[in-house]
């Protein structure tokens, strides 16, 4: 039953041969990579306006345009810089790899930590933003926003555990529908404005009460809020090997198409905001307000709200692809637990996916699924990793002998300087609002990753055998054996286990600990009926506990054993063939196993006894 | 580090001798048992008013009094009925035991299911109600209500995992402070009303717009909402053996004291509501509004809000005591997984506690921590179990030979009739609002519990050995052994494991599967340096996966083995002595173990290799 459910939810297991088919062509790749960046128009413009409107009032709509232009300029620089990375790292050069190879391990880990935090926030922010599009259109869903976001994350987790290609096919349709919607919105919105002029002015007490003046700090603050529009841009360069051949060329084309899309959609909606004056703060997103101004309460309004919601949820997918892949790279380098490299039955990096959705879900819960509260944590990591990648690229070109390396150095230097300044601006402007959390987390993560690496190294050192050791090792019969079989009663399972034990050694001890005197007596009587010289040691536990006295006894025997004696504890274990059967059995055995492993040199053996569930 | 944290959170482990000290005397027992019942005044009156006020308007305050009197009448009948149960079941007679013994297993399980649901809702409702008292006093905490409730449940879980006696001592102080506060509130509120008269009438648009008329259905609806005041009454009779000796007498005294308290507090606050006309719906609870009317913005107002909050949270404790205890009883009877009987290091039934807090936390999340939405699910289970307990008692007295059994039959018959009618009223009035969920859940739970019982029984049947079997079993040496040691490389751990394997049998096979050709080559070279006749089988896995080909190979060998050959897979396992060390190792081993266990008759042995973490 559970197996059927798992199959329905996660699909049939994929054989390894199917792995190669899981790669992106240009349209699918663009759909997967684009969602993160283009969905951010749903909140980036809003965040800029949030900063401006309380200070500048109605002049904000004018300045919104200029700040959007600054961000588009930054987009231009980043696009060129990232095409350089695709060129230099055909095997996939995320900020982690570029920084590690060119700037050393420590800075590589800083980039890795930034990216991991960034991926987690991508999920939290995008999912929250997607649900905000829905609650804008259907305000009575507002009280359920957190629940809707969490459910969305769970659904995405399941889709991603099914495997990436199938996911991207599902994801590409809404991406293109959203792009279509945006083209219609911007085109029709601009035409409508020039035909019919501005709509009647709205009441915006927040804006009309504004009394502040324009300052460079205000502009920088608004700029740092808007930088969230550029998150997700690095996805393409990370994922070069995931593209179909010629993967480098395809990735480059996708990168350029993506930037074009951001330019058009982000620029276009900023223009519409200037024309249609959305109100802030409001229960509805500004994109929802603009769309309503342009299309009214029509099909197109709901079409855009729903595609915005879906594309925002799909934006999470960038992280659901990127996070596990990055974790797997880090784990292969020994900086994270090795299980992050284990692929699931559907060839997805299951553990990374689950970890990602768990942490981002908690963030959504803590921050009440409020995009505005999450944003200050978001951009720091992104721009820090941008900066490190650009810096790494400068070193890369300097050390390379390729022709034209000087031009490349210039390009990446410009990128480095711009992203570095942006990082400083973001940290400065957003520190108290949440950026401090990221500033603290990054060194903690770097330290943790270094510790993991040290641990694996120390272990390898301890386990190492030298050539001389090998030659001197004899693998003859060195040990005699004592096998102890813990039994609760004499049944078919314990009898089989005793037979197995007896054929290993003559020194078999049956050990029974019980808090029930009657049961112990019954066991002794039955034992006498059994024709055996195996020793039965039965202990009555006065204090209900069974496991502790059993462990104590085993400890005593282990301490008394000589160097040539090996103690094996053989535990009969019921094996059921229903998923719930295992919930009903073997918990005592599990506790004994865990405790023995941790404390002693006793070998623990499990003797399976298969139960017939179907009878 | 983790161990230290666990100690701080959960306290030092309690030895079994300390178990006896964990019992209640009268004041502590009252404090633990009372919280559930008396904290319900914080919402029961409110729920009655909620039903009335939209229909009857200002006349509601008058009818509130009469409905409260009906509920107090019900309280009187239930108290007498439950004292009967304490008399008849000194070993603790919850509805489950009374129904099972007198009405048969099926109805016993119905009672058990009702009680389990009831306990879960006690936690959800009480914790939400407690937080509502706080958000009434501090309205800017309102958006964080769900989070506060979840945090409260987590804190209570930790306290309860520490053990019950310590908990009850912590819990008794706020209970008595709350009782003190209520006495002051009711006394001063009544005196103030008679000295100064009613306060100036408040605007209550909801009440003044009401145009409905009084009907019997309205009264029944209000009555069914108010019945939540009587939840938790059964706690005393469940917990007779937890009282100090003479436990029966102590329990009876606590039962009477408890009813007196409910009478005074519930009756008193209903009276105050009639005098001071709290407004509904409102962001503040009606208890908060009444208290504010009586004491104004004074110390006493905050005192009562805070003690209300604390006692409501402590009310959860009734469930944290009752749920795991009931689960343990059910599990001992074979109707629930046996691990519910396992006591933790602090003598608490840890698994039951964790299950309870998990499910109730999810309910809080789904229902937005809104008491009004949770109430319809609450009372059904309570009154269904009341009815079953009373019915069971009638049969009990009929079958007993005690003098005066006729009088007892009459008392419990009245109890049965009244609670049965109340159950019908609640189901009828609250069906669509949520009672249907409980009506569906109860048969599902009963079916599940029966299935668990069937499973344990079938297993016992399969394992049973007859006397003749025992006499014919020979425990001599019957088997020859093949031991397979999966190794990834030649290191100290794998060498030790091979030595152990070799001393069991000559048929040892070292098996290595790798996706890395270089590693395999290195292993082969090293193996040749080793002077051994042990067979090394190395397999190159073309598709990155390691576990699947390994399992396939083991399957092949297992299929080829004869009846007298036993296959043992010996896995070297690294043991680390830091809590995080285990996160970094042995995951492949774990997967192999799980898969082998499920499929084959292969014995799985773990060879521990202790790593020196502290170096």
UniProtKB/TrEMBL annotation, chains A, B:
Pfam families: AA_permease_2. Signal peptide: none annotated. GO terms for cellular component: membrane. It is found in: Membrane. It comes from the Bacteria. The keyword Membrane applies. Coiled coil: none annotated. Keywords: Membrane, Transmembrane, Transmembrane helix. The chain crosses the membrane at residues 41-60, 66-86, 107-138, 144-161, 173-194, 214-233, 253-273, 299-326, 347-369, 375-397, 409-428, 434-454. The keyword Secreted does not apply. GO terms for molecular function: transmembrane transporter activity. It is a multi-pass membrane protein. InterPro entries: AA/rel_permease1, APC_K+_Transporter. This is Amino acid permease. It comes from Clostridium scatologenes. The lineage of its organism: Bacteria, Bacillati, Bacillota, Clostridia, Eubacteriales.
